[in-house]
Amino acid sequence: MSLICLVLLVTLAQFFFGNAFTFSVFNAEEERPKPKPMVPQLAPPKIPEGERVDFDDIHRKRMEKDLNELQTLIDAHFEQRKKDEEEMISLKDRIERRRSERAEIQRVRAEKEKDRQNRIVEERHRKEEEEAKRKADDDAKKKKVLSGMGANFGGFLAKSELRRGKRLTGREIKKKTLTERKQPLAIDSLREDSLKQRAQDMWNCIYQLESDKFDYMEHMKHQKYEIIVLLNRIQHAQKFKKVHGKGKVGGRWK
């Protein structure tokens, strides 16, 4: 009924006022606020009558749950910490083992190098001892030859050089002998122990030369003494012959 009345009123308005009234009516209807959708309201659950809610029990259960979760986190933390400590200990053990292995390798290398150096030094000493022994044998042979030749050694050398067409003086003979005996030191590449051994060898050589010199001087003194004694005997015999003796010449006594 209301809708019919509304339609009649609109028709009459259009007849008197024209189409403007129609647009204003429809615009007014469009501008009306739209009704909001109906949302059903949910009622909170009703607590049964005769029962009381224990909030302390709810709080206690929540606290127990939180404590359990916290204890689980703490246990997981300590378990992870234990694993980390075990890994750290294992890492330290591996590092220490590698350090020990490296030290052992270096020790073995050092021992091998030391043995090699010792073998080199021993080989050098052996060669030096062989050379010294050879020189000592040569000197002993020369000394034996000189002792056998005696006082005629100087004359023998002089005669030998005279046969060659040149006479050498005593100083020249000494210089030639020293030149033959003098050997280069060659100590630039020697170590401290080798230098000490070379110095000891030189001292032994000097000591041997001084001993030989002393023996030669004593031998020379003895030979001079024997020569003087023989000369005195010859002179005494000649004087005795001139004064007391008569010689037999051509079967007659003078």
From TrEMBL:
Keyword Phosphoprotein: yes
UniProt name for this protein: Troponin T, slow skeletal muscle
Protein encoded by which gene: tnnt1
Biological processes per GO annotation: regulation of muscle contraction; sarcomere organization; slow-twitch skeletal muscle fiber contraction
Single Gene Ontology MF annotation: troponin T binding
Biased composition (Basic and acidic residues): 109-141
Subunit structure: Interacts with TPM3.
Residue numbers spanned by region Disordered: 109-143
Gene3D superfamilies assigned: 1.20.5.350
Family: Belongs to the troponin T family.
